[in-house]
Structures are given as C-alpha cells and as structure tokens.
Design brief:
Length: 140
C-alpha cells in the first residue's frame, strides 16, 4: 500500500482502487475530457481525441492513436493531465497511457507530367509500350 504525507508528520494511506475497465467506458470518458478541453480552447486536442477511436490493450493500457508528429507533440502537453483524469473517472490507479503514431503509407503526390506518367506506368506497364508505339511525348 502506498502512503503519502499530508504536510504534517502524519502518514495518510493512498487509496488503491482498481476497477475493471471496459473499452466503451474509456471512449466515453475520453470524449467527455475532449469536450471539456474544447470549452477551454484546446481545439487541436479535442480534434485529436475525437477523430480516431481509442483502444484498450490488456487490462490497464489505453492506446491513443495520432496521425502525425504535430498531433503527437500537442498531445504530450496534456498526457499526464489526461492520465490523471482517466484514473480518477475509471477508478483504476494502475491505468497507463500509450501514444502511437499511425504508419500511413502516403505516396508522394505527382505534380509534373513526368511524375504522373511514372505513377501510371507503375500501375500499368503497357503504358510505356503504348507511348513508344505511337511516339507520344510526356512533357507538353
């Protein structure tokens, strides 16, 4: 059992509450936290927390997925505050919070005619034969 002091020399026991956590309840509590933050002006945090559903890994690990470094950086400021809020609302002091960045396989967008042709050629190799047979130019 953990203990803490109350400013005097007396030792006060810290209550260890560890109720079972359900994923639906986690999402509900996170949405409530996000709404509170929206009211206080943390619009980016609200968007991050409501755009992608959270998940529960194991019995005590809440996993929040972010899409990019900017969201991850912005979220780091509120991470401990959210963890404390979750522990209090879900009544589980063993709760942990993981942040995972999605691995989007974003391709570079083709802008020039040559880049567009290369992308199309990768999808359909017969395009190169078509271009050569009819003497077509890529740049115009």
């Amino acid at each position: 059992m953990q203990q803490k002091t109350d400013g005097t020399d007396a030792v006060v026991p810290v209550e260890q509450v560890n109720e079972k956590i359900e994923e639906a309840r986690v999402q509900e509590v996170i949405r409530a936290y996000a709404e509170q933050k929206l009211v206080t002006g943390a619009r980016q945090l609200h968007t991050t927390l409501t755009s992608i559903p959270t998940s529960l890994k194991g019995d005590t690990c809440v996993v929040i997925t972010v899409e990019n470094d900017a969201q991850k950086e912005n979220f780091q400021v509120y991470k401990q505050e959210l963890l404390d809020y979750l522990r209090k609302e879900l009544k589980n002091t063993r709760l942990t919070l993981d942040l995972i960045e999605t691995q989007n396989s974003t391709q570079k967008k083709a802008h020039t005619p040559l880049e567009k042709f290369e992308n199309l050629k990768n999808k359909n190799p017969l395009l190169l034969e078509f271009k050569n047979r009819f003497g077509l130019e890529i740049d115009y």
